[in-house]
Amino acid sequence: MDLFGNSITKEDNLLPYDGIVNYFGKILSLNKAHQYFIDLLTTVEWKNDEAIIYGKHIITKRKAAWYGDADYEYTYSNTTKKALPWTKELWELKLLTQTLSGTKFNSCLLNLYHNGDEGMAWHSDDEKSLGLDTVIASISLGAERKFSFKHKQTKETVSLNLESGSLLIMKGTTQTHWLHSLPKTKKVKTPRVNLTFRTIVDQQT
Ligand SMILES: O=C(O)CCC(=O)C(=O)O
Ligand SMILES: [Fe+2]
């Protein structure tokens, strides 16, 4: 369902131009989504994210973790993380995501937002380590949150709600032309876990 109550299918491109975003809706049953949510909350090595933004050292309220096939280093906002080896749950979700998206991934960035006071500011996932026109698959668990895209030139925005157990794919030139964000909201009082499966290219390990 988009924000106007229209139903969307995984074939629909949510972006009007300059990129491709497909929303698969719920790919996990309510039970499975809940079980993965609880398992990930307890088994993932969550850490407050540190970032350098406009020259300031920031420690985010949201927590993050980075997993992968090898101990890839991932640098964003001037901080570097080394990937941890896949856990059982992350490996299962990676395989499911690969099957549904037809894309192979080698790493996953996880974010834990404790409530609506925590979000993610406008950005593109256009780090050099991801290469150009990368495919990113995003699984959401827990609280439903609004997710928005904004075109870098035209400033046109597109928003949708990410349900628990849902899958969203960003591909084509999406990261080149569009920003995305998870807006903060007073309405959400419960936690959400997000997994973004990614492909790190051009790195020797
Ligand atoms: O939490 C989300 O849905 C998005 C997270 C995100 O954009 C990112 O990790 O790059
Ligand atoms: Fe992102």
Give the integer mean of the pLDDT values.
Answer: 91
* Count of β-strands: 14
Task: Give the count of structural domains.
Answer: 1
* Continuous helix count: 3
Name every ligand kind in the structure.
2-oxoglutaric acid, fe (ii) ion
For the report, how would you describe the main beta sheet?
8 strands, mixed
The N- and C-terminal alpha carbons lie at a distance of 42 Å
Enter the CATH topology name.
Answer: Jelly Rolls
Q: What's the SSE pattern? A: EHEEEEEHEEEEEEHEE
Percentage beta strand: 35-45%
What's the architecture, going by CATH?
Sandwich
Integer-rounded radius of gyration: 16 Å
Helical amount among residues, as a percent range? Answer: 10-25%
Q: Which structural class matches the secondary elements?
A: alpha+beta
Shape: globular
Low-confidence stretches: none
**The CATH top-level class label:** Mainly Beta
Q: By CATH's scheme, which homologous superfamily applies? A: Alpha-ketoglutarate-dependent dioxygenase AlkB-like
Textual characterization of the structure:
There is one protein chain. Strands 1, 2, 3, 6, 7, 9, 12 and 14 form an eight-stranded mixed beta sheet that branches. The protein has a single domain (20-198), classed as Alpha-ketoglutarate-dependent dioxygenase AlkB-like (Jelly Rolls, Sandwich), CATH 2.60.120. Helix content is 16%, strand content 42%. By secondary structure, the protein is α+β, with helices and mostly antiparallel strands. 34% of the residues are buried. Bound molecules: 2-oxoglutaric acid and fe (ii) ion. Residues 109, 111, 120, 125, 138, 147, 162, 180, 182, 194, 196 line the site of 2-oxoglutaric acid.
